[in-house]
Amino acid sequence: MASTSGFRVRRVYDPPEAGDGVRVLVDRLWPRGVSKEAAAVDEWPKEVTPSGELRKWLHANPERYDEFTRRYHAELASPELRDELARLAGLAAKKRVTLLTAVKEPAHSHVPVLLGTLEKTTPR
């Protein structure tokens, strides 16, 4: 998944690369079968991931993706997340930030919603 900003997206199961920069896990749950050492995760801001309730709601019926996107945007718009999103956007303005996920198809997950929000967020 390509990005025009300082972000890029990779699967957490892929080995770390020199160009990853800061590796940020953007899943609510730790990925199965991956040790913390192998994942080489620098940050894990769970608060910017979909809520457990929303995540389970989508997994129960993946055809609800459009509604999931709307609901996740609403979660990301909460004032409580403003500073964390701005911090991550500011980090990407200075260096590469690789968003890591365990999902098989990142393009059809919560990641594009989060990435789009981060790319529109003004660093503080």
Notes on the protein architecture:
The chain is α/β, with parallel strands linked by helices and 124 residues long. The protein has one domain (7-120). It has five helices and three strands, in the order E-E-H-H-H-H-E-H. The chain has helices at residues 36-39, 52-60, 65-76, 79-94, 111-120; strands at 7-11, 22-25, 97-101. A three-stranded parallel β-sheet has the order 1-3-2, with helices on one face. The protein is globular and about 35 Å long. The mean pLDDT is 93.
Give structural attributes.
three-stranded parallel beta sheet; YeaO-like; alpha/beta; 124 residues; 5 helices; 3 strands
Secondary structure topology:
Blueprint: E1 7-11, E2 22-25, H1 36-39, H2 52-60, H3 65-76, H4 79-94, E3 97-101, H5 111-120
Parallel strand pairs: 1-3, 2-3
Helix pairs in contact: 2-3, 4-5
InterPro entries: YeaO-like
Pfam family, one: DUF488-N3i
Radius of gyration: 14 Å
Largest sheet: 3 strands, parallel
Structural class: alpha/beta
First and last CA, distance? 26 Å
Number of strands: 3
Spatial arrangement of strands, main beta sheet: 1-3-2
| Nearest-integer average pLDDT | 93
Pfam family, one: DUF488-N3i
InterPro entries: YeaO-like
Summarize the structure.
The protein has 124 residues and is of the alpha/beta class. The protein has helices at residues 36-39, 52-60, 65-76, 79-94, 111-120, and strands spanning 7-11, 22-25, 97-101. The protein has 5 helices and 3 strands; from the N terminus they run E-E-H-H-H-H-E-H.
